Amino acid sequence: MSTTTNGRSYKAQKVIDRMGQKLTRQMVGSLAACVHCGQCTDSCHYVLSNPGDPTFAPAYKADRIRKLFKKHYDWTGKVFPKWVKAGTVQTDEDLEELKDIVFGKCTNCRRCTINCPMGVDLATFNRMARGLLCHVGIMPEGVEYVAKEQWEIGNQMGVLKEDYIETIEWQEEELQDEMEDPNARIPVDKVNSEIVYVINPREIKHDPRSVLDAAKIFYMAGADYTMPSEGWDMTNFGLFNGDDELGGAVAGRVYDKVEELNGKKLVISECGHGYRSTRCEGPNWAKKDIAFDSESSVITMLKYIKEGKIKVDKTKNPGSYTFHDSCNNARSCGLTEEPRELLSLVVDDFREMYPNRAENYCCTGGGGAMSMAEYRPSRLKSAKVKADQLSATGTKTVVTSCHNCVDGLTDLIGHYKLGMDVTQLVNLVANALVVDEKIEENRKIHSAETSATAAQ
Amino acid sequence: MSNLLHFSSHTLQEIALVFMATVYFMRVRWFLKWPLAKERQPATGMGDTNPKKGARYSVGKIAMPWAMESSRNKPLMYAQFVIFHLGVVAAIGLSFIIPYGPGLLKSAGLVSLIQLLTGAACIIGVFRIIRRITNPYMRAISSPDDHFSLVLLTGWFAFAFMAAPNNISSGEGVMLAYFMLTAFFLVYVPFSKISHYLYYPFTRTYLGRHFGRRGVYPLKRTPA
Q: Which of B32, B42, B199 shows the shortest C-beta gap to A33?
């Protein structure tokens, strides 16, 4: 390990120096204002699932970052370091310890944030700390790998353009078969469309059914839409690894493509962190004001039903359902009511989970945790509270609007042997679709138009 | 009244107050020098809220125990919080009433109210000291400043309780201790976590604006 003249490792010195560049007033307020009242303790799923271990307490975790701030940027810590528990990092091992806290003991779910009487936003400065570590190459291997894929290939699962196009063509054929319409299309790079639809690479790699289901809904609604051939990944590992540059670049690719295609509206498929990154944080990271509208596909689907563009029959989705709010959707984007309204339209037996909406517990796979294999045992142990919450609903299926939550919930359901299925709203809406004469007429007209446009 | 007590209750307090105000001024100036992160995102949520509404809700949340799970599920902790802070208000008020408006203390009702609040706050302070030492979670997150600030406040409540009748017929010891402690308190506070109230309007406003823009504040929920 090489060191600076003050005996500190170069990486540790870089982390300290860079912290000063990344701090905002909001973060400084959060770092300075904690009174260690302990009110946040019981809000954290890690604490609730690991009773007796105070190292999981949000305030304890926050203090591992706060001590650096106090020592190097707050004069109370400079003058009386021990008195206010200020401290520093000297070695790369210190940074590794910090890594295990900011990546391995927190999913940045923000549940402690909404339960802090002082308004301390731990998740925001925890993300900053992740970014500081990533900047010097200290991060879980999975995070490094995924971030690299997103930088180099343009999507977080390393899906090549040919594979992406091939999968869409495959789903287009499926659409034609199911709709019994050889003119049915999934348009790619169609300019001047009303909607540019972007997705999670997981849909291409592991769940192409979601692409097909969305295509069926767009087809039935007679939507004027397109999928882009580039900039189609609305997920963003910049949210997880704290790298604003990556966040800005990934979101920027999506925005640039929408502008290039002259799309009127960006519709983001069901993904909590993708929605938050593309809809909310992306403009901040990319330092770009967005000129076009954007919305979650949940809102788009709900509008189609309300406007009579599609019809659904809830008896097509028998069984009992509960809804899991993605942290990013609910606690960071206020997307809580529309999914419930939509779900109530497509299933008969919807049972609320408690607590819910912005107070819901994390799926425990958030914050990029699903890509951090080294923390899996701890993650699953910490999922106990979520497992209990799911079990208490007495339902057979949990619905969520987030691909990451689908994976997180599936993993914990298997681990705790809950025997539940996980699905998304797009699947339920597509399954509930019914065709009446008016809709049939609309879709045929639109299908012929789309086909003609494609032929040109 | 002795010269020492007069000095302690007047000049010493004024010096301490000026010192505290100066440090606070520097502290706020330091804080405001940090760049404010800009929100460029288009508004999200149901359209029934906005940054201003979110900020109002966020700042007012302290008086809405039902709005936060951490206080909703622990009503006794919330009651303690309220009484403790009312005790602070009473003890601070007393430090102004005795030197500048002693006539007010002729009212037995006011004296009783001050004693009720400071006495209850003192008992809660003792409870909080015990909790901070015995609860493993609290112990793990506590700094020497946390412990000292709590002990200091608890002791100060006790002296405020005794000083409230403003009676020096049986000696000036209690009054001297109260004012000396108040002066020390004023000098120490800006360097300690007790100064959290300085940040409160900022942190809660920023968070409220952020969550208001995103349609999160005011929180929606379906109770069990």
A: B199
